[in-house]
Amino acid sequence: MEIVHTPVLLNECLELLSSEESYGKEPLMIDSTLGEGGHSFNFLSKYPSLNILGLDADSVIQARAKERLSVYGKRMHFFNGWFQDFYAAFPSSMAGSGIEEGKRPDIILFDLGISVFHYEKSERGFSFRYDEKLDMRLNSNEGESAADLVNELSEEKLADLIYLYGEEKLSRRIARAIVSAREGGRIESSKALAQIIWDAVPANYRYGNIHPATRTFQALRIAVNGELKRLPKALHDAFNALNEGGKMGVITFHSLEDRIVKNYFRNLGRACVCPPEVAQCRCGGKKCAEIITRKPVCPTEEEVRVNSPSRSAKLRVVRKICNANEYRLEGVEGY
Asked: In sequence order, which residues have a C-beta less than 8 Å from that of residue 269 and are 6 or more positions away?
């Protein structure tokens, strides 16, 4: 089977989230964003007593991971669904996974990047390099597609979406061009949308470091899959699912995601997060986690050279001390 995605910050994850000796007999890891199984494959290879449960909302890419990871037999388990649903229902969501009842994870990993598989092989319009149906849903059986948003949102809402999720400074100009173009018929393909954006921006904006459609496509993908809306609560529920002493690592790829993770982890590492006007502490008054990475871990120059999608990756890791209540989510964007 051809593998098209290379796991980012792999050595750093193996070092910071392990080692086998730190946990009990047959430790459990949950790979919250399994993809083609790159991180899981390497964790299983390095730590022979480790068991992993891999989560993914996309049944197509999960089937590829199952084939790749079949060499590890009963040490690998699978859950098909969104990670926020899995952690919100934990531990009942573990039923039927093949993992012993009452088992809690010692390691949780989130890799929030979109797999190269989706850009290169899914044919769902994630990339403007190909002429594909403008979909972008990780689970193609639910929710609105990118085409729905492009063709049905008002100009103002479309501009706001592109600015908020894509941090695109020409969002209003691009939204105006999209609304004008759709008067001639629905915009259905990734190539068509990319061309509209190309034509809408000034000539000097077309030849920068990235294609002028990049940020708009990112914004649509984030909106279609609810990536930022579901992240804060998912992180919180995942943290509380961990064994005490267990570690959670999150890899992000853009500033909006990283800000959410940084602020939530910072709250976990503080003794108290109550605002000054609160007379009596309500958050528990003690640290819930030890912050392992005071600054985010970024890829080396060598990794960026051989795997360019890793260039914007950042890894943050915490070790759990105790459960956190929902006051730790206060002030975290998106919650």
From this structure: 287, 288, 289, 290, 291, 318
Rounded Cα distance between 97 and 282, Å, is 36
| Burial of 249 per CB tally in 10 Å (0-12, 13-18, 19+) | buried
CB neighbour burial string for 29-61, b if at least 16 within 10 angstroms, e if fewer: bbbbbbbbbbbbbebbeebeebbbbbbbbbeeb
- Of the candidates 39, 52, 44, 53, the residue with the CA atom closest to the CA atom of residue 3: 39
Looking at the DSSP bridge assignments, the partners of residue 232 are: none
pTM of this structure: 0.89
| Bridge pairing between strands 314-320 and 107-111 | unpaired
What SS3 state is found at 206?
A: coil
Interatomic CA distance for residues 269 and 291, integer angstroms: 6
pLDDT tens sequence across 216-249:
999 999 999 988 989 999 999 999 999 999 999 9
Helices of type H across the chain: 10-17, 38-46, 59-69, 83-88, 116-120, 146-152, 155-166, 171-182, 190-200, 214-225, 231-241, 255-268, 301-306
Residue 143 is encoded by which pair of tokens?
């929710």
142 and 85 Cβ atoms separated by less than 8 Å = no
Spell 170-194 as b/e; 16+ CB within 10 A means b: bbbbbbebbbebeeeeebbbbbbbb
**Structure token pair of residue 175:** 């939204």
The C-alpha atoms of residue 136 and residue 141 are separated, in whole angstroms, by 12
DSSP letters spanning 9-72: THHHHHHHH--GGGS-SS-EEEETT-TTSHHHHHHHHH-TT-EEEEEES-HHHHHHHHHHHGGG
80 forms beta bridges with 56
Contacts of 180 (CB under 8 A, 6+ apart): none
What is the tens place of the pLDDT at every residue in 187-201?
999 999 999 999 999
